[in-house]
């Protein structure tokens, strides 16, 4: 196994971490580094595509390739990166607002498309970077500066949605459980197909409800759960308190990259390919006739 | 007798679903293979059935590549076609068809030649053969090669069995014989010279040229959301995706489409999106990302009239400003607008090298008229196409956004080399990490918006001059109006009028200013506010003296351009 230290970036801009002291994102960073190390991944072969938000700053604090993109858009970009070069390990990373609100449509269709990427959602049930507005997963009754009357919308249930859409791999963890989270992430990364991991983590600055203690008290680990049983997985997914943690659902199926015509005969990444001039010639010849 | 020489414009009109497309396909292919130059273009309504759609086919002794207003031969497949094309009828127009498809009031204005197409079809066995009879009739009028027609029908209907093939050949023969007879009886006279060379030429559409050019230029990833008139490029690419071994993916929306194309480039592939104004509007956020992250991307934008849904199936050059100014913040881009089908092929291929070299969005502007036009051309020279990749192998200290003199930083990709790279849509330092440093922010803005733009401008392609450089009058135009204006100038035959066509629309090379100095400048474009004329003024301080604008969703015709220029000349 390589050392997690390999994933510690040495760039000048990576030193000043912009997260609040005590933020759950630090824990997720450590989980990621350990997962990469335990999987013996090379920094050069890993790409983290992130959206916008505090979670999305991850590419700057970890020594792998990164692309800090736009709010909600990490998934389509990550999908294409994997499709362009399937030998890369690709992670799309963002917060609950990023993945479930602004990027909701992309999440739905990524599940349909099933690229072999890992979607990592830092779910702190609040908007942190924009200072404390409700997110799709904020619990009803929670008052915020922009929902002073208290949130009344039904919270988004990413786990139930993903299972309903027959996603390939669906899991939830709480970053306060380090070892378990590393194991789940390793399985998600190794899983062939779209893996969604919803990671609970506290926002120490803006979410006074869902604290470290709250997550410990209101979650439990699923024991003896068969992730290949979709109905059972769905039942677990709609439990509300305590919230189950672990791998809810696995459905092995062909990935996007496996099905596109580009890789049927030739596995070379797209960037190393040359245009099929002979095929163009054939078409032009046909255009001389009928 | 009505006689047509050198160049005949045939218009077929009918409802969507009536098979006009079939007749158009048979005619253009068979007449081209008979040795005639052909050109075709269509106008259609935004509906699947009904309405009135027309196709113009020009058959000529010499190369024809532009839309003309006049109709020489009209074949109406339903009532309502004549009123729809009323302004295009001349006293010479011959209407070939059923009595029931011609409104009473036109009988005195046209030369009506009644042909009982429907009865003839029924004689063969079914009114389904109507289209083949009509096609046979026109091929007969031109004394086209019946053997070619037979062969075409065999290919087209072969999968449906021998019975269908032989019935279609029978139908075609009936039409063909009638066509010959009409000529022999001197009802219609057609005098068009055949050119043996034409037989071997390529019949290519604007859509196909863009798609093939893209593949020749190394496109291996196309993401799109369907939208007229841009979808054809995706259809063509998807149908050949297996042969080309490329990825063509229809995605959930245009936002996803362009983000995917950006992701593909980031990983070293060559990605493109094909879209129209409304779809491009949704892409502007990601365009800005490409600008900030210095991520190459190629966008084919087939224009149609707006705002909003506008006229979904019609044509306009109204999105130049959209292409110029979309995206927040300041960053460079390249805008190209091919004028001919050949040019669409070469320019689209080159767009990928430009995007790769300069790491900017490259937008190819076409329009409905352009993508739906096709004609025969000798060939495209594949030897002219070069795929120039500008990807570097990274080392341990690799800096994605290294500050350089020309504003271009060597671009690495993940997994190639010892380094890692960080791309970023936030303001960043040379490594790609977020910065809010004053000095760095300024340097990075200057790198992108000044240094890189000037590098691009230095390498910009010059416009094409048609005519003499000392002409008193100079027409300026861009994109799809190229051939219409060329033919109009040939018709006018005035040596004091020249034409400067811009296929490279932005950024404009400074030398252009000298070329336009001291001339009486006539801007011709298809929009309301003369967007290109405004660009010339803004970029180079060039003042246009006269503007010829059209914005009814229909293409400029040669006649309209002739009239407009005549009105300006002394």
TrEMBL record, chain A:
GO MF annotations in UniProt: 2-oxoglutarate synthase activity; iron-sulfur cluster binding; metal ion binding; thiamine pyrophosphate binding
InterPro entries: 2-oxoacid:Fd_oxidoreductase, OFOB, PFO_beta_C, THDP-binding, TPP_enzyme_TPP-bd
EC number: 1.2.7.3
Enzyme class, UniProt record, top EC level: oxidoreductase
Xref: SUPFAM superfamilies: Thiamin diphosphate-binding fold (THDP-binding)
Thiamine pyrophosphate enzyme TPP-binding domain location: 56-199
Keyword field contains Kinase: no
Every Pyruvate ferredoxin oxidoreductase beta subunit C-terminal domain range: 203-265
Presence of keyword Metal-binding: yes
Keywords of this entry: Iron, Iron-sulfur, Magnesium, Metal-binding, Oxidoreductase, Thiamine pyrophosphate
GO biological process: cellular respiration; organic acid metabolic process; sulfur compound biosynthetic process
Any matching Pfam family: PFO_beta_C
Cofactors (names): thiamine diphosphate; [4Fe-4S] cluster; Mg(2+)
Annotated protein name in UniProt: 2-oxoacid:ferredoxin oxidoreductase, subunit beta
Source species: Thermococcus sibiricus (strain DSM 12597 / MM 739)
Automatic annotation (TrEMBL), chain B:
Keywords linked to the UniProt accession: Oxidoreductase, Pyruvate
GO biological process, one term: response to oxidative stress
Natural source organism: Thermococcus sibiricus (strain DSM 12597 / MM 739)
Identification of the protein by name: 2-oxoglutarate synthase subunit KorA
Domain Pyruvate/ketoisovalerate oxidoreductase catalytic: 16-177
Gene3D superfamilies from the UniProt entry: 3.40.50.920, 3.40.50.970, Pyruvate-ferredoxin oxidoreductase, PFOR, domain III
Record GO terms (molecular function): 2-oxobutyrate synthase activity; 2-oxoglutarate synthase activity; pyruvate synthase activity
Keyword Zinc: no
Domain Pyruvate flavodoxin/ferredoxin oxidoreductase pyrimidine binding, residue spans: 213-438
InterPro entries according to UniProt: 2-oxoacid/accept_OxRdtase_asu, Pyruvate:ferred/Flavod_OxRd, Pyrv/ketoisovalerate_OxRed_cat, Pyrv_Fd/Flavodoxin_OxRdtase_N, Pyrv_flavodox_OxRed_cen, THDP-binding, Transketo_C/PFOR_II
Oligomer and partners: Heterodimer composed of an alpha and a beta subunit.
UniProt xrefs under Pfam families: POR, POR_N
Enzyme Commission number(s) of this protein: 1.2.7.11, 1.2.7.3
Substrates-to-products reaction catalysed: 2 oxidized [2Fe-2S]-[ferredoxin] + 2-oxoglutarate + CoA = succinyl-CoA + 2 reduced [2Fe-2S]-[ferredoxin] + CO2 + H(+); a 2-oxocarboxylate + 2 oxidized [2Fe-2S]-[ferredoxin] + CoA = an acyl-CoA + 2 reduced [2Fe-2S]-[ferredoxin] + CO2 + H(+)
Record's keyword annotation contains tRNA processing: no
CDD domains: TPP_PYR_PFOR_IOR-alpha_like (cd07034)
Lineage top rank: taxon: Archaea
